[in-house]
Design a protein that fits this description.
With about 500 residues, the protein is α/β, with parallel strands linked by helices. Helices cover about 55% and strands about 10% of the residues. It folds into 2 domains: about 1-30 and about 320-495, no CATH class; about 40-295, Spore Coat Polysaccharide Biosynthesis Protein SpsA, Chain A. Helix 1 (about 1-35) packs across helix 6, helix 6 (about 185-205) crosses helix 14 and helix 17 (about 440-465) packs antiparallel against helix 18. The radius of gyration is 24 Å and the shape is globular.
Length: about 500
Amino acid sequence: MILEILVIVIYTTSLLLIFMYALAQLNLLFNYLASKKVKDHSPKFDLSNPNEIPYITIQLPVYNEMYVMERLLDNIAEIDYPKDKLEIQVLDDSNDETAETTLKQIQKLQATGLDIKQITRTNRKGFKAGALKAGLVTAKGSIIAIFDSDFLPQKDWLKRTVPYFKDKRIGVVQTRWGHINRNYSILTRIQAFALDAHFTLEQVGRNSKGHFINFNGTAGLWRKTCIIDAGNWEGDTLTEDLDLSYRAQLKNWKFKYLEHVETPAELPIVISAARSQQFRWNKGGAENFRKMLGSVVKSKNISAKTKVHGLLHLLNSTMFLNVLIVGVLSIPMLYIKNEYAHLRPYFYVMSFFVISTIIFFICYWFMYKNIYGGGFKNFIKYIGMFFVFFSIAMGFSLHNSIAVLEGHLGKKSDFVRTPKFNITKYKDNWKNNKYMKRTISVHVIFEGLLMLYFGFGMYSAFIVGNQGGDFGLFPFHLMLFAGFGYVFFKSLASKV
């Protein structure tokens, strides 16, 4: 019975943590809805007045971006801003032929009168953070705009974002990510679904109430003095953006999130690229929890509610570990339920926690409705999308849990870039992308085994007990089976 008790305790704890996270999401939904009733009276620069036009440096941190560099530079060159107040730094850490082809394109753009230069380093110390820090030394701008290589800001992007820096307390202005290939595949649709939830509910919900938000690594701007005051870029975590964001806000710098400004970008189109990105984000989140926990808890500058939201924010990625634990232990729990009749009251109480899923369902509907519109047809589409998203998200739970555990345990790893594809040009031959990994990760094998495990869970529903089975967890096991199956077979196909 000791083993059974241990399983029950761990299972219950994980369910409680997921429930707490769901309640936090619900609170963010309330904040999000309340924000829609508030008019923005932020002071703004009048860019028609030459005396109010700040100098801008655009930083483009790149590393071996063969397939997207031409598109990136052509797009950035079209940005509408006074040329005498604009500098573009291409922070090029490339060690392949991309560096040479990029230089040639930069020279052509220089001939048009554009202040653009390629900045290279002899080593990649600090990876992206190191490149940004190195560029900052010579940056002319008082405001620094940052774009990753797969982002395509619109011509008026600076004119829609820069004015908010008139408020001298503003250290960061962040925009919402758009997705140029949202409907490319199921994989891109579920990635867009997750990111849309972050860029609506979470960013607006936190920012509207003065809670900590994060600069998302790209599609945003920093006040140069804010970067310096917060301690500059550091490369000791895989999410340098989250790290600097928290250090800046702990120094009382204000962040401004602009939901209405969309910055289009390309989502990873193969699961190996998505896995690489997910691993970095989730491990980096755990690393930052480990790094920032003490500073957030001890801070005298922020409210208790902001501290709670901040800690839950830093623990976002840890939810994958709780989901994995609940999933794995749900099958032993099924047998325990049907073996020990005296525990039935406990299981009746535990059924309450299905409300977590209901909360997520409600929260994400408002996000979905905001993007696609309401109405019965869209609601039906949403139901399908919600369960597909949840299934595949759970399918990633093993991979992401390993990332989380490595982060919490302090295991260091290199910054692994996400391969870019430029699908408008290379849609038909993405398999030839030279930056893709060609080996099978051992994680994939375990994902296949978990698929079989949850298949056994579905079978168990028919054989447990003496009343013709127990199907209460069958839908949950079906989603886990489908999610791990999708991740397993897709990973084999793209050779992770």
